[in-house]
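hi! just following up on the protien thing from before. the input was this:
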Amino acid sequence: MDDVSFNLNTIGPRLDAASQAAIIEANPTAAGLSNEAQHVMRSDRLDESIALHLQALDLKQRACPKLSIQTVITLNALGKTYLRAGRLEEAQELLLKALKVKADKNHWGLGLGPRLDAATTRENVAALREAQGNFDDARVMRLNRTTKGEMLCGNYNACKSVFYCGWDSGVPGGRLEKPSQASLQGSYSYCEVIVVLSNAVRSVLEQMRTSDHLDSIHLDLLEREEWVSRAWTYQEAVNSGQNLFITCEDTHGAIVHGSHFLNCLGYTFSRLGSSDLASDKRQRYPRLDAFEDLIADYMISGYQERSALQVMSNMDRRIQRRREDHFYAMIGAISTVRASDCETSDPCEAFMLVCERKGDYSFIYSAVKRDSTPFRRWRPVSGDLPSILPWHSFGEGQPAHKESEFLYLDQMMLLENHSMDREGEKFVEEWLDSNKIRGVGSPKSVQESMHAALQFMGFKGSPDCISTTHGLFFPWQRISDDEETTILVATQLRWTFGAPGIARSYRNAELYTPGVFFGRIDNAVATSVKMS
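and the predicted 3d structure came back as:
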């Protein structure tokens, strides 16, 4: 294997047991050591910090190529600690080696890793030059890539997490301010993401170290934790792969690997009792309920497998300080493309463009008005983009293709207004019974029970549904009875009870109304549908 690589060494039959164990142990253990090293460095226990970084480096070099990104992250951190300790020669050796790997090829580097990660090391080298009294070189180093928007703030105390401070190059018309999350959209799969929660959750992490589940009091603590419901949390967690670690502000707090944190929380939810919709879990833990969907996405989804609708549904229940952060976080969750690569300064429009280029048109299943422009009447108007139903879906997205100026939605089921057949009724009734939506002797009709279930899931559309042979379609807005209407239902994107859909009706022109189809899906009749 080459010395220059992003990857871990491969576990194969030729490796002995000790080598295999080293590879498996390396990243989680090394990240924990590195995090502890950062903690003790803040207390000026520099010798102890250096020793911890050296242990982390030794572990990584057993499992990773010597010039891999994983190893170079620790070289940079150790070099920075040497710099703080005044050991300038040792700092220079490590920082220049790290810069060699990260720097752009046009500047005699290898060009590995995210560009803003290289900016971190350049800033450290600039600080080294200042310590050496070479201020001209420090200035040149800092200004090296400013035209590309790759410059980090040198004030490490500027905000709680240095990782989020930088040049906002991912935002069209980039500006120097914090936070600059949009510029880091592609970084999480390469970086070690270490989440620092408040001291209030120290007991939660301590229990996770020795258990596979949590007590209810710990769920109450996590429910109050801001990180659980932040917009950026979704992107950080689902894109981090095996590089996510959770700790707290306490310098002696536990460090828990992200996969164990999410597994432990998910298992705890499964033990709460009833998993049906009648459970009060969603009312008691609204933040953690959304976080449970994040857990599912983390476990099963990669960049190309996560639909726009799936991301929109989770983000609807998250908070952000700036409106654009909502869309930049969603872009980062579905693609490695940055917002600045789109030819628009509108964050919502940028998100839809990224989805179209990816070939996933599931963003059309949003509870907003449609464009009035010919050939684009199917498309949501730019603005807010709430999902038609904030509930976990599965499937890679909504396939489509274009012919001339027309869009064709692929793999769609076409249904006309008709009473439900026996198979449709059976599917709906069995689902309602299995989820305990209708009590014995309930006066509610099937339609009322279906709408009640959707309301519980967060549906805010009309209760006036359109009946089809396969089930009922609940539109976002009421559709007049005198309009000729066809229901288009997705077959590649599902919920357990049905799928998103869109009603095509005719007045003076074709009109499109998104909604939720509650019923049986038949892939055998799927076809492509021309949109206007």
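The two ends are 53 Å apart (CA to CA).
The longest helix spans residues 17-42.
cheers
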